[in-house]
Design goal:
Helix content is 52%, strand content 0%. It has a single domain, classed as 434 Repressor (Amino-terminal Domain). By secondary structure, the protein is mostly helical. The longest helix has 13 residues.
Amino acid sequence: MNDTQLIKALGGCNAVARLLGIKGASVSGWKVIPTDRKIRLAVIAEDRGICLRKDIFPNDYQDIWIELREDLKGQSCRT
């Protein structure tokens, strides 16, 4: 999902601005969503069932959210 699709899926510029606590004009001026904001929006989009965080960050989701790392699934803590 690209940035434009994400903003549209979340309800448009004004809706995204409300979610982030910023002005709508700021969002409409983005050519690319700043990474820190996009991370927050990815979590919101997943919570709303719009898409998965993996869909928004396909190449680096495992670095952002370590709980999504495939090599950690099913492992328990060892002492």
